[in-house]
Amino acid sequence: MIAKTPDPDSLLERALTDALERAEEGDEIALRLLDAAYEQFCRMGIRRSTMEDVARRAGVSRITAYRRFATKDALVEQVVRREFRRYFDQFLIDIQDAESAADRVVLGFASALRAIRHNPLIGGLMTVEPDVLVPSMVSDGGHTLATVQRFVAGQLRREQHAGHVSEDVDVELVAELMTRVSASFLVTPSHVIDLDDDEQVREVARRFLVPMLRPK
Description:
The protein is an all-alpha fold. It has a single domain, classed as Tetracycline Repressor, domain 2. 67% of the residues lie in helices and 0% in strands. The chain is built from eleven helices and no strands. The protein starts with 10 loop residues before the first helix and ends in a 7-residue tail after the last helix. Keywords: DNA-binding. GO terms for molecular function: DNA-binding transcription factor activity; transcription cis-regulatory region binding. Residues 27-87 form the HTH tetR-type domain.
């Protein structure tokens, strides 16, 4: 059987949109398969991995694997979704001690770049198999960026409702610009800014992102 390659135009969008779902909780076999798939994809990449490889690594039969995940696409989607869910959880941890909206933007920007670039699966795929993930960020009609933009806009809207950001700020537009800046750094690493230097990344956010929170 030839494993079907995940559709790059929808993989990240679905993973991001549904990242907070935990449908696999309570299903020990599904969790074992997800753990095995994560390890397999990190080691071999998505294209070179099959459902049989994952089943073998999880210690279950191929039939059992297909009963939990009908296709390889479905398994890949769930693995990527779980990684983004972990990122969202870490994002909230990273900004929880910030004292202002500006500080949360700075810490959140650094957290996003660090978490995604250093994630063994997602960051690794962007380096080794960029044609699986990168196209979904830049050539899917804007759907993936729109999904991330909605998440960022939601965070900024909470800041507005709490009185930390002026009502005159267009949070939709600000979120759009912040999302595009982040995506640009992820897709095309900078030769000017060391993205592994958190202080440099935070300084970029302070100088160019935080001012967008101030009404003109």
